[in-house]
Amino acid sequence: MGKNYIYKISCENRKILFFSYTGISIRTSGIAKNTGENFLKFSDLISNVPQFDLFNQSTILDAQGMVIGYSTVAIDKAGIAIGGGIHSLLETSQRIALAESLERSIFNKICDDVKLKKDFYIEEYPTTCGFAAGFEDEKTKLRAVCEAIERWAWSKWIDEGFSISKSERPEILSPITQNFIKNFDNVLFYKKQFEITFEDKILPLTWGVLLGIKGGGIFPGSRVCGINEDPWEHSSVEAWRHFHMFNSSKIAPYKKNFYLDRVLHFATKLDLALASIPKNNFKTWPVPKIDFCKKFEGITFSLWRALSFDYIGWEKGNIDRFIY
C-alpha cells in the first residue's frame, strides 16, 4: 500500500469537497489483476516512460460523501506527477492518465531527434499543442484536431479580437463540474461553434471556455469537442487545476516555465484578464483549417499531432497575454 493523501477544498457554500488519494499497489507486478483491463496497456507505459513508478488512484466525493468521480495520477520515481486523469468512470480516468503520460514521453523523444523535430514542426511550435495520445486511432486523431482548433480559437479570440458572446450557465452540468466550480466566487461561460472540413468530411465542433473567478484572480479552462459532447467537465477540471497550482505555489517552490508563470500571473490579475476579452463586435470569424496532421509511427498505441498554422503559439508574447 502506498501513501494516503487527503485534500480538503473549500467550496462557495462553505461545504467541503473531499479528495481522497490512496497510492495503491499499481506497479509492474499484478497490474492487470489490480486495476482492470485498461491496464493491460501498462507495458506501453513501462517501455516508453522508464521513470514511471506508480499510479495514485482516488475517489472524488461530493459534500454528502457520495462518489462522483475518480482521479488517477501517474507518479515517477522522483515522486513527481507525469500524467493524470479525472472522470466520472474509473477506467476512463485510468486511460486519460496513461495517455497523458505516454504523450509527454513521446513528445520528449521527438524533441531530442533532429529529424522528428522537423517532421512535427517542433521548432515552429515548441509545445505539446496539437498532440494527442490514446488507444483508438481515429478517436485519437480527432482529439489532436480538436486540440489544434482550441489553440487556434484562443489566439483568434484574444490576439485578433474576434468576439464570443457570454453564455448563461448551462442548465445541465455533470456532478464533477458542479463540484469543481463551487471553488470559485463566480464562473463565466463562453461557447462558440465551428465547422471544419477535415479529410473530406465536415466536422461540427463546439468550443467551451469556462472562467473561474476567485478574489482578484481568474482561472480558465476550455475544451473543443463534438457538438453532442460536454465541453464543461474538462474545462472545469482545467480551471480547478490552475486554481490548485496557485494555492500550491504559496506553500512550495515551483519550477518556473511560461505556462505556470502565466497561470500565477492571472491568479491576481482579474481586471487585466477581463480587459483582454473583446467585447461583442460582430467581426466574422474565419473558418478554421487544419494545415498539418501526422501520426507518430513505430509504437503500439496512437499518437498524432495536428496544427493550424494560422495562430500564435501560446508560448509567445509576454506574461500579460491572456492565452491558455
Please summarize what this structure is:
With 324 residues, this protein is of the alpha+beta class.
Structure, explained:
It contains 9 helices and 12 strands. By secondary structure, it is an alpha+beta fold. The chain has 2 domains: 1-102, no CATH class; 113-324, no CATH class. The strands form 3 sheets. A 5-stranded antiparallel sheet has the order 1-2-3-4-5, with helices on both faces. α2 (42-48) packs parallel to α3 (90-111) and α6 (175-181) runs parallel beside α7 (232-249).
Q: How much of the sequence is in beta strands?
A: 25-35%
Number of domains: 2
Shape label = globular
Radius of gyration: 20 Å
Unreliable stretches (pLDDT < 50, length at least 5) are: 1-40
Helix count, per DSSP?
9
Overall pLDDT confidence: 85
Distance between the termini: 37 Å
Q: State the secondary-structure class.
A: alpha+beta
* Oligomer classification: single chain
Query: What string gives the helices and strands in order?
Result: EEHHEEEHHEHEHEEEHHHEE
The helix content is 25-40%
Largest sheet: 5 strands, antiparallel
The spatial strand order of the largest sheet comes to: 1-2-3-4-5
